[in-house]
Write a structure and sequence with these properties.
The chain is mainly α. About 85% of the residues lie in helices and about 0% in strands. It has helices at about 1-35, 40-65, 70-94.
Length: about 90
């Protein structure tokens, strides 16, 4: 029984690491959109395809739920809020 519990805890930790990395990418993109710092440009260019996929998926979900389209900045904020909520939900389960 201990092995299954440890595997579930390990998967949960890996999920948190992936969410942290994704949240860092979204925050870097949001900071770059706001202040246009030149030294962030190569990082933003590298993560742009992932951010585009993420915002497209969020746009589809938001259109289905609310019937409206939102700008990219708003979608980025919604993604961060949803990931924080999802993290609290996972912590509550375990």
């Amino acid at each position: 029984m201990g092995l299954i519990t440890n595997i579930l805890i390990g998967i949960t930790h890996l999920t948190f690491v992936a969410m942290d990395i994704l949240m860092a990418m979204v925050l870097i993109k949001a900071i770059y959109c706001r202040w246009r710092m030149k030294w962030l440009e190569p990082i933003v260019n590298a993560i742009e395809p992932l951010i585009i996929q993420l915002t497209n998926m969020a746009q589809k979900i938001s259109v289905r739920v609310t019937g409206r389209t939102y700008p990219e900045r708003t979608l980025l904020i919604l993604i961060v809020v949803f990931m924080c909520f999802f993290r609290i939900l996972i912590c509550g389960v375990f």
